[in-house]
Amino acid sequence: MRHLHAHRNPKPAQQRILPYACLLSLLAFTGCQARALNPAGPAASAIASLWWVMFITSTLVFIVVMVALALALRRRDVGDRGRGLSRSLVTYGGAIVPGIIVVGLMIYNTYITVQLEEPPDTPVTTVRAMAHQFWWDFEYVDYGFRTANEIHIPAGQSVMVQLASDDVIHAFWVPQLHGKRDMTPDHVGQIWLQADEPGTYQGLCAEFCGMQHAKMQFLVIAHEPEDYQAWLEQHQVIPPVPEDPRVFRGQQIFLGSECVYCHTVRGTNATGTLGPDLTNLASRRDLGAGTLPNTRGHLAGWIIDSQQFKPGNLMPPSPMDGQDLLDMLIYLESLR
Ligand code: CUA
């Protein structure tokens, strides 16, 4: 008997919890969407206003329909006059008014979509974005260098980003700056990024692309135009041969390792393209496309065995002697 009771009892508790669970999931949902509804550029602002217009309209329609339903349930016998009213309600409320609302929303939606296909401003440069499982390669075609997992742009000016994929379908999404855009292997798409103010905006892959889809993030960093120019200049510099003997030793260890088959450091014989370009590695905020902060400890762990942090990524473990690893880290930290 006790056993049976134990099975019966939890039900009321579950029922009591249900409304709170619904509320919590709703809150989680709004948290998820908050960035898209907190626009920081012209394209995201247009998308956010479309969202608000649709949300407010559908909320009003829902309230009106629910009130009409409540009234209909309360009044049983409506009489002849009531039947006439019901018929015109069906005509107006069921066909004409919804038709006007749907067509109105469609026109507004088309207007916004057309607007999003136009650059907000003459693009100042082009960034060629290539999605990989599970990281981003960004090539500044006008300046001859690449970055990984970070796009830098001047605030208040637009940058054209060409979108393609090296393997499966990914999607490029910076919620505060623009809508989602697919990146496919057989087509080059494009999008314009423009931020109103300097700041760091989170970007992510928005199409399930494999085991580490969730750890396929990037940053869009908007600078004041003069800081952006300085950033461009810094990134065009080819790192000189290290003068410090320890840094030099670190470089020799790096160049003698298997790292060079997959990574590039401009000005050296490391010219691999399977993994991120490391020429300015030390200037980046994160490692592994948003997996870890870029610190010496995390970088060491990442080199030794990145599979611990991001299982399924393409980088194999590289067990190393402690001193060699330390010198190599010092070299990599010099790549700013
Ligand atoms: Cu790339 Cu999901």
What would you say this structure looks like, in words?
There is one protein chain. With 336 residues, this protein is of the alpha+beta class. It folds into three domains: 13-117; 126-235, Sandwich (Immunoglobulin-like); 245-332, Immunoglobulin-like (Sandwich), CATH 2.60.40.420. It has helices at residues 2-8, 10-33, 42-74, 79-116, 225-236, 245-255, 296-305, 322-333; strands at 126-132, 135-140, 145-148, 150-154, 159-165, 170-173, 181-183, 189-193, 199-205, 217-223, 286-287, 292-293. The strands form three sheets. It has a five-stranded mixed beta sheet, with no helix packed on it. Strands 4-10-9-6-7 form a five-stranded mixed beta sheet. A hairpin with a 4-residue loop joins strand 11 and strand 12. It starts with a helix and ends with a helix. The structure holds dinuclear copper ion. Dinuclear copper ion binds at residues 131, 134, 170, 205, 207-209, 213, 216.
Question: Which descriptors would you attach to this protein?
Answer:
single chain; 336 residues; Immunoglobulin-like; 5-stranded mixed β-sheet; elongated
First and last CA, distance: 72 Å
Number of strands: 12
Pattern of helices and strands: HHHHEEEEEEEEEEHHEEHH
Q: How confident overall, as mean pLDDT?
A: 90
What class, by secondary structure content? alpha+beta
Bound molecules: dinuclear copper ion
